[in-house]
TrEMBL record:
Coiled coil, from the record: none
Domain of life the protein comes from: Bacteria
Native source species: Micromonospora radicis
GO BP terms, alphabetized: fungal-type cell wall polysaccharide metabolic process
Classification via PANTHER family: ALKALI-SENSITIVE LINKAGE PROTEIN 1
Ranges of residues in domain Ricin B lectin: 35-158
Residues annotated as signal peptide: 1-25
The protein, known as: RNA polymerase subunit sigma-24
Amino acid sequence: MTARSVSRSWLVGAAAALTCLAAVAAVPAARADTSTPILGVAGKCVDVQWSGTANGTTVWLWDCNGTNAQNWAGVGQRGALRAFGKCLDVAGGSHQDGTRVQLWECNGTDAQNWKLENRKLVNTGSGKCLDTLGGSATGTPLQIRGCSGAATQTWAPPGAPPVAAPVAKKGVSTWEFAYEAEGIRDVGAAWYHDWSTSDDVPASAEFVPMIWGAGFVNDGELATAQRSGRTLLGFNEPDLPEQANMSVEHALDLWPRLQGTGMRLGSPAVAFGADVPGGWLDRFLAGARERGLRVDFIALHWYGSDFGDEAANHLMQYVRAVHERYRLPIWVTEFGLIDFSQGRPRHPTPQQLVTFIGKATAALEATPYVERYAWFALPAIGEHAPHGLYHVNGTATEAGAAYRAAGRS
C-alpha cells in the first residue's frame, strides 16, 4: 500500500556445497577434485557468506543456487571440505557445543577434518556434528554440536533427496518505526516486506524486496534487490491510480528486467479482482504466457469489509478462486479487515479482529498452496492504530497478541 525508496545493502550469500577432501593441507595435483553442493535442512545448502575468501569468513545456510560459494571439493573422502581453495574449519579448534564454523586456510589439523556418516557431517577433532543453530532460516550460521537425530544435523550426499522441514508462512508488512525489529521478532514473523528493495532494520526474519512500480525498474534498485533477498515481489497495486498505476502492457514490457535478476518472482499484486476473467492480473498473466515470461507465484491483497463470523471464509474463497484459475502458489502479501467503501476507512472492533485473525491464519496455515501470508501492518500508529499489531511503545495490541499466536503449535 505504500512505497519506500530507502536503500540498504547487504550482500546476497550463495548456497553451498558438499565434499570431503583428504586430511592434508595440499592435494596432489594428479587427483581431480569434484565439487558438489551439501544439501541440508529445508533443502538449503552450506554456503560461504557473501562468497568471501578471507580467513574467518562465516559459513551459513543459504538457498542453493549453484555458485562457487556452494561448491566443496573432494566428494566422499574423509578429510577436509574445501571451497575457494580454503577449508571448513571449527573456530579455534574448539570442542564446545555452539562453536561456529568458518572458512580458513587449510592446515591439516583435526579442526578441518570431517567425515560423512549416516547423513551427518562429523568433525573428527571434536566428535561433534555440523549443525544449523537449531533453525532452517536462510542466513543461519553453522556450528558444531553434539550429534543427535535432529534434521538440522542431517546433510544429503550428492544424489540423495534433500532434508525436508516445515516452511514457516507467517510474515508482516511494515514500515520503519522505533520497535520494528522487536515487533518482527516478538510476533514470530518468518519474513517481512516494506514495499522497497532494501531495509535498514536488522530484523531476525527474512526480508523480501519489492519493485514497487515502473520508476523502480532501474539497475540500482534491481541490484539492491538481488543483494537484499532471494525472492522478488512485483509491482504494487498497478491497477490503482494512487498506487503503481501501470497498464498491463507497460508492466509486461518491464517484466524481463525483473526476471533478469534470476530471483524467484511474484506476480504484480492487484488491489482486487485477481480472479476476474479479463481483469488486470488475468490479462497480465495471459500476456506473460504469450511472451514466454516467468511468474513463479501469485501475490494477493485482500481487505474484508464484512467484519462478521464469515470474514475468514470470504478471504479463503478469494484465495481458492485465484489458485483454481492460475494453478500457481499463493502469497497473501497484504490482508486485513478494513472497509474502504465509505470514503474514510471503517474498522472492526478489537474482538472482531482477534476472531478473524485466529480463523484466517488457521485456514492459511492449513492450505497447501498458500506459501506465505503477511498482515497489514506491523505498526499500530496514527491512522493504522485500529488494525496494527504493535503500539509506538512496542507493546502488542489485542490483534498483535492474536497474530503472535498464529502458526504456532
